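Researcher: Next entry: ACY2 Aspartoacylase (Nyctibius grandis).
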Amino acid sequence: VDKPPVRRVAIFGGTHGNELSGVLLVKHWQENGAEIQRTGMEVKPFLTNPRAVKKCTRYIDCDLNRVFDPDNLGRTVVEDIPYEVRRAQEINRIFGPKGSDDAYDLIFDLHNTTSNMGGTLILENSRDDFTIQMFHYIKNALAPERCPVLLIEHPSLKYATTRSVAKHPVGKYEK
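Model: Predicted structure:
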């Protein structure tokens, strides 16, 4: 199947404000983005949860990585709406809307973990041929270093993660 080329890529850091690897990389690339820019592509580094980053805490009111569902994205903005729900709506406006042809092609969401899993790629859809081929390329480029791929696909669950706004969501976890 002939698919349009990937033209818009976002790199997210700070979805959880206490996971600093992605925060530091995003801040570095915001100051000097030359190393991530490619001809014919827009690559945008983005700090997803700046209030949580400032406090160095996982989140302020609720987990940003769990509120990208239709109910939260469609909520009316009122004064007492949780900060992360408001932020999810803003991210959806910038990089989405989720599920649309206008959504960013690819979002890399950078995380840390305390698990001994090393650098791990997260795949949400085993039928996403583009992402599977990209993971194959990444794994070959990193060889002989290990780079496991964790498939978190569920037959009836629609993911409400930060990266799910993109046509091709990618999670990257690092110990």
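Model: Note for the record: The chain is about 30% helix and 20% strand.
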